[in-house]
Amino acid sequence: MVHPLCPLYNLIKTHSINNLIIRNFASLKENIKSNKISTISNISSTKSNRQEISNRQKFRQINPPPSILKEIEALKLGKPRKTKISRFATKVAIIGRKKLENKLGKLEVEQEELELPHLTFFAGAKIPSSFPPEKVPEVAFVGRSNVGKSSLINALADTTVVRTSDKPGLTRQINFYAAGRIFNMIDMPGYGFAYVKEEEITQWKELIETYISTRKTLRKIFVIVDARHGIKLADIEFLEMLNKKSIEIQIVLTKCDMVIPPDLARRYVIVKEKLKQYKNAIEVPLMVSARKKTGILKLRKEILYTVEALEKARRAIQKKSILIDDERKIREKDGNNIIKGKKKSNSRRSNGKKENARFKEKMN
Ligand SMILES: Nc1nc2c(ncn2[C@@H]2O[C@H](COP(=O)(O)OP(=O)(O)OP(=O)(O)O)[C@@H](O)[C@H]2O)c(=O)[nH]1
Ligand SMILES: [Mg+2]
Hints:
A seven-stranded mixed β-sheet has the order 1-3-4-2-5-6-7. It is α/β, with parallel strands linked by helices. The protein is globular. The relative contact order is 0.11. Helix 2 (66-74) packs across helix 7. It has helices at residues 8-61, 66-74, 89-104, 149-157, 198-214, 233-243, 261-275, 296-306, 310-363; strands at residues 119-125, 138-143, 174-179, 183-187, 218-226, 248-254, 286-287. Bound molecules: guanosine-5'-triphosphate and magnesium ion. The site of magnesium ion has 5 residues, from helix 4.
């Protein structure tokens, strides 16, 4: 401390006051600056919120055709409605369904039971020279990373042979799966965001493009789109590229189990509208959920038709149902015999008891 009577006192005092003022001014400036930034960010966030709200409002304003809503309800495609867990729950669900039926008509659609042949992995390609020979027709599944391509192939073939993950970027090469010896299903790496290097994504893109441009056996590309988000920028880039090729494409909206039915119908309308720009695209998107296995039969039929195996699959199903019938009849017959056998053994047992009694009598 400097004594107030010291000649240096005043000098130091003014200096420290100046310092204090400077420091305060600096912090004030900083505050103003940060305040300004926060105000700007507030404004921009309100602006984006407003835009978001208006986008959402626009989305809500879409009035989907009742036929789409009906299909969604009938195939149980959307997110299941929450019903109150109470003893009236089933009653509420029945009334709700009846109300919907009054509005939309009978909520039932014919679905053909079809199965795909047994699926096996037979080749993986990181470079075009590793593509296997072109022998049977092929259908390929493309889409953004983590959209659910691999899960969908599993659901379609009723298997778990294809590896899936909740982390984007699991499939890192073009994987070839043989469906019996009839056709191949091709699982592609995803485009867009993935936990991998930018170069690797560019490499995948080139690999996918080479496959699509050169593969003579490729019949159709299913572009898988997340039903919650619709067609994103990465999808548009890809669709633009596909538009220059002469291959048929079909959009499949997946993860439908995560979207409530009216929103799913709206998403369908938007995607259908967007598809008009792409000349090779089939104009109606399909809707599925790999998790709930809904909408799968329709997509199976589409695939089988594409690879010209629909009749074969129908015959296989007929054969299977005949076999199941025969087996049931045999089991029923066996069952009757077993029952008769039981009766026989019962009677044998009772005979045995009588014999035992007689034996005991003799012994006595
Ligand atoms: N709720 C729901 N989740 C799904 C569905 N399909 C896939 N998923 C989940 O989405 C995640 C990604 O699935 P994948 O099948 O691995 O996705 P992918 O498109 O093959 O991903 P990459 O190979 O990384 O491009 C997994 O956690 C799946 O369980 C669906 O229909 N519904
Ligand atoms: Mg995958």
